[in-house]
Amino acid sequence: MACLLLGYASGSWLGALWVCRLAGVDDPRLAGSGNPGFSNVLRLYGRRLAAATLALDAVKGMPALGLAMAFGLPPWAQGVIGLAVLLGHSYPPWHRFRGGKAVASAFGVLLVLTPGVAMCCAVLWALLAWRVRTAAVASLSSAGVAPLASLWLAPDYVLVVTTFTALVLVRHLLNIRRLGRGDEPGL
Question: What pathway annotation does it carry (predicted)?
Answer without folding.
Answer: Lipid metabolism; phospholipid metabolism
